[in-house]
Specification:
The structure holds two protein chains of two kinds. By secondary structure, chain A is α+β, with helices and mostly antiparallel strands. Chain A has two helices and two strands, in the order βαβα. Helix content of chain A is 37%, strand content 12%. The two termini of chain A are 26 Å apart. Chain B is built from 18 helices and 18 strands.
């Protein structure tokens, strides 16, 4: 296995998925951040979600 | 009482926003309950549990917003429900105009921020593992604030992260510091030479603030979530984080904070620590592991102090109080009123509550962890699930603690209370004026309910926090509270108030000596 670069060496740039308050705090601190518009996938339909996941695994 | 149920279809809001708006509207005259939830399976179960299910509420799906209001008239209930919906729409419009584009998919988000290094995930727990796995596939480190993630999913995510050379901080990770960036509930602290691996968010906050006070700073603070040293997870992320910090040229000393590890995991951890060249100071909340690989401390303050001494190449001696003479003067001022009476502690930080419990049990005897006990000492973690069902965490909404405190006073629960002990944790993510909220409730307690006992506050924060430590200290002093910046010292001081016999042990004085 090759030596991987340490995650501690990367400049922190954040994709925030969820509480928007965290995005506001990071922006305030000058950290590059993108807030995702997250909603329950497949409209929260469990069966449809399982189907999507199986497609994702195949793809 | 009248109850209305409204459904706003296809309108997703995060739980903190919903609970904050509900909490504000609930304070209105004539309103007894305002509940706002997304119509997820878990939330329907919660509504049934608290008796708020209505025939209409059952119709709401996971992307629909449910607003349930109980009020003294039908008109008032309907008006409050309309106001709630209007407030949410107005907040969203403000956010959308003040913020830039919000992508709907991970690929688009990465396209928008190609240098993205980390995903911060704070969505409902039953969706978090799936989203986290997709983020790992994209090479992103994880900060998972969400709780209620299955422990098997946690172990699997952590294994995948290690294989990819990434971090999986959490689930249930409240705080982290990476490369000088605070994530989640984090204090504004200086960078420095001390790395932290922490299974507790408030524990990491307390240590980071103590180091800041001692003139030191954090290189990185890697949160691992409260279950990492359980048998099921096996310390995967703790050992990964220790190895990363050991190789980090900016880290001279490591502080490791956790609940007591599972015995099998403890052995693995100790064996692993033998391979490290960086000294590790640890605090395991009451547990002491065998062997000499770790420098083990009893309290969070001691962990920070010992780490600071190590980098400053100074000898370390554990101390019960940093300023014993000040404590003696405070005790003289407080008088003997609280002696022999009940101690009631209401905490927002679970780790701080646990630390106080561990320090006080040997001094005061049995201490209950809930408010149902009428007599005897109690220390309660108000961030526990029992007190946060359908409510925001008290670190975000300290008014929840005020409500509990005033309800206790109304029901006679403070009649035998000799002293109150409370924590306030400042920083990003926390309420903007928690001291002001506490000062208001103390004024109510003293003015309307005749409570005259001392109030002791364990205050965690720094001057650079959004709330500014000195401003919060001033507000608390003006409200008549006694403030300690080390949680362990606040706990020990309260022991001295309600059990003066502790002086011999804690202030190195003969029994009964008066100050």
């Amino acid at each position: 296995m090759t030596e991987k670069s340490s995650p501690l060496d990367r400049q922190v740039q954040v994709i925030n998925i969820g509480l928007e308050r965290f995005t506001a705090d990071l922006r305030e601190a000058g950290v590059p951040v993108v807030q995702m518009d997250w909603r329950p996938p497949a409209g929260g339909d469990k069966k449809l979600l399982e189907l999507l996941d199986s497609l994702h695994e195949r793809g | 009482m009248f109850c209305t149920t409204s459904i706003v279809t296809s309108s997703y809001y995060d739980s903190v926003v919903l609970m904050r708006v509900a909490s504000q509207l609930k304070k209105r005259q004539g309103v007894s309950e305002v509940a706002m939830f997304m119509g997820t399976e878990g939330n329907h179960a919660l509504l049934a549990q608290v008796g708020l299910t209505t025939p209409e509420s059952k119709e709401a799906g996971p992307q629909d917003l449910l607003i349930i209001v109980r009020a003294e008239s039908e008109e008032l209930a309907a008006a409050i429900a309309r106001e709630a919906a209007d407030e949410l729409i107005s907040r969203r419009q403000t956010e959308q105009s003040s913020q830039s584009y919000q992508p709907r998919t991970l690929d688009r988000a990465i396209g928008f921020l190609p240098g993205a290094s980390l995903a911060a995930i704070s969505i409902p727990g039953n969706y978090a593992a799936r989203t986290a796995a997709h983020c790992l596939e994209k090479g992103l480190n994880l900060f998972i604030f969400s709780d209620n993630v299955a422990v098997a999913d946690e172990a699997s995510l952590k294994r995948q992260a290690v294989e990819r050379g990434l971090l999986c901080m959490g689930p249930d990770c409240g705080t982290a510091y990476l490369n000088g960036v605070g994530l989640g509930f984090s204090n504004v602290v200086r960078r420095g030479r001390i790395g932290c691996v922490a299974a507790s968010g408030t524990g990491l906050q307390a240590v980071a603030c103590a180091l800041d006070r001692l003139g030191e700073g954090i290189s990185h603070g890697i949160g691992v979530g409260g279950r990492d040293l359980s048998l099921e997870v096996g310390g995967i992320m703790t050992t990964h984080a220790l190895a990363l910090l050991d190789r980090d040229p900016g880290t001279r000393v490591i502080v490791l904070l956790s609940k007591p590890p599972h015995p099998q995991v403890a052995q693995t951890l100790l064996d692993f620590c033998r391979t490290l060249t960086t000294p590790v100071v640890s605090c395991f909340q009451g547990a002491r592991l065998p062997g000499g690989q770790l420098l083990q401390t009893l309290t969070l303050e001691d962990a920070a102090h010992q780490a600071a001494c190590l980098v400053q190449e100074k000898p370390f001696t554990a101390r019960l109080f940093s300023q014993p003479d000040t404590v003696k003067a405070l005790l003289a001022n407080a008088g003997s009123g609280p002696a022999g009476k009940q101690l009631i502690g209401l905490f927002c930080g679970g780790t701080l509550a646990k630390e106080a419990q561990l320090l006080l049990t040997p001094l005061l005897g049995e201490i209950a962890t809930d408010l149902n006990r009428q007599n005897g000492h109690c220390l309660v973690d108000l961030g526990d699930d029992r007190y946060t069902v359908g409510r925001p965490h008290p670190m975000i909404a300290p008014e929840n603690r005020s409500e509990i405190l005033l309800e206790l006073a109304r029901s006679g629960g403070l009649n035998n209370c000799g002293a109150l002990l409370m924590d306030i944790v400042l920083g990003n993510g926390a309420h903007l004026d928690p001291a002001g909220e506490l000062a208001w409730s103390l004024a109510e307690l003293r003015g309307k309910h005749g409570f005259s006992g001392p109030v002791v506050v364990s205050l965690v924060g720094t001057e650079d926090d959004p709330q500014a430590l000195s401003n919060q200290q001033r507000t608390l002093h003006q409200a008549g509270a006694t403030v300690f910046l080390a949680n362990s010292e606040a706990a020990r001081y309260v022991a001295l108030l309600v059990a003066p016999a502790c002086r011999a042990l804690l202030l190195n004085e003969p029994d009964g000596e008066a100050s």
